[in-house]
Amino acid sequence: MPPRLTATLDSLGCRAVPEVHIVVGEYLGGYGVLDDAWEIASARLGVSDRTDDEVRAWLRSLPVDADSVIRIDWARDGIGAELPFSVFAQHFDDLWYPSSDDVVVLTPDGALLYLDHEERFSFVPRLEERREVA
User: Fold this and answer.
1) What is the tens place of the pLDDT at every residue in 43-101?
2) Is 53 exposed, middle or buried, given 0-12, 13-18 or 19+ CB atoms closer than 10 A?
3) Would you give the DSSP letter of residue 108?
4) From residue 19, how far is each of 16, 46, 74, 123, 134 by CA, in Å?
5) Are 113 and 100 in contact (CB under 8 A)?
6) Which residues, other chains included, contact 40 with Cβ-Cβ below 8 Å and sequence gap of 6+?
7) Which of 14, 39, 46, 131 could form a disulfide with 9 if both were Cys (CB 3.0 to 4.6 A apart)?
């Protein structure tokens, strides 16, 4: 979890919502599904050799409405939040720390964006449909 996450969320006009962690965990059916996110992703990006602007451009290219309110879960810490995707895309580097954080993002239409501690971003549209295929 980024240091001073609560202060960062406040500065972005958001706040921590503990219920989000519960909702995300239930939707995923457990966090083990994240082990396969890279393999089943329709879009993926290794970010270790990318600039923040390149990552922002990739995030904005995803089929997610910029104004949609997403749920973000710092699973290991049991903390969640809700904020517009455009805010997340602009400030992802304040909300995810490479090599230490795993961050799960759920969109209103059920897509999953997983930012893992190995510095990989995986986008899985309609996670429920992907589970049925896998």
Assistant:
1) 999 999 999 999 999 999 999 999 999 999 998 888 899 999 999 999 999 999 887 77
2) exposed
3) T
4) 9, 30, 12, 23, 29
5) no
6) 122, 124, 130, 133, 134
7) 14
